Amino acid sequence: MRVALVAMETTNHRNTAGNHRFERLARQLVGAGHDVRFFCARWWSSDPDTVELDGVEYHGIADDDALAEFCLRLPVAIFQYAPDVVHTRPAPPPQVIAASTGGTLARAPLALEWFGDEGLDPNAPATRVVAREPQMVLTPSELVRTRVRELGALGRGSRTIAEGIDFDAVGQAGVGEGVDVAYAHPLDESANAGSLLLGLAELRDKDWQATVIGDGPRRGDYERQAADLRIDDRVTFAGACDRDRRLRVYRGAHVFVQTAYREYFPTELLWALACGCVGLVEYQAESSAHELIENYERSFGVTDPGGIADAIVEAGQFDRRDTDDTWQSYDHGAVLDRYVDTYEKLLTDFSFV
Fold first, then answer.
1. 182 & 53 share domain
2. 293 pLDDT band (50/70/90 cuts)?
3. 33, 128: one domain
């Protein structure tokens, strides 16, 4: 299958989860034998116009500050490539219209990858136009899918495709020193790690150890809060940690606690569940984390720090594990199959009059 991926902005311009997901998809499609061309703004010198990175051919249509030029050249570039499917990102909005025009010229349907972190104003007319333009909108969670449908995307033209993990990496990682509770999130304004610390403080009379993974501008505040609550001797702030270190912590932990205010998809929770952790999610209006555990027995949904404390105690009913095959269906290969299935559905259902 020939797939044209369109994103003026890449991780080389802005390091976001949505951009990472889109570029990972490009690499996986190439790895599976599909013909992929990635149309973007140049982050390299203007000569040459094309670079190859991790097997993916990136075509620089314009410089990163030349939106009008990018949108003017994109339809012709897509037409010349003659893809089966065009797949784009929603920001900046004009690129969606240009990608749609290119798809029309190439007689190829348009899919839109909407992760949620694009920073689009939901009240802006351009945002609503973007939501209604493609034949299919793909989101990582029902939370994001609902928001896009509220903007006008058709229900029959939207699908949820969850984030993926490398399930083999779980079994290959070592098992860290056992801790009772693990948490992971950048320690920023959305982390809400204080809710976890308050819950742990209610369990001072019990024997437990916790590890907090993550770094950021609020780390000092949370370390001071742990000290004020007199639990700093039992809470380890481990910093950002690479993937292998995180997996070792998760495989050695009993419970993973998710409290963040905002989560378009709870990737670290997914990794932790695959590592055998009991999932504990504090419900948040801006988080999709509860979706992941809705039908999973080894989990708890709570609404406040008191509920976190109670659930940590109740988690004792579940045995400790260092892997859980339940989550193999979220392996990168399975997620890629869902994308390819979506492309095939578009090709079957879509036709130009």
1. no
2. very high
3. yes
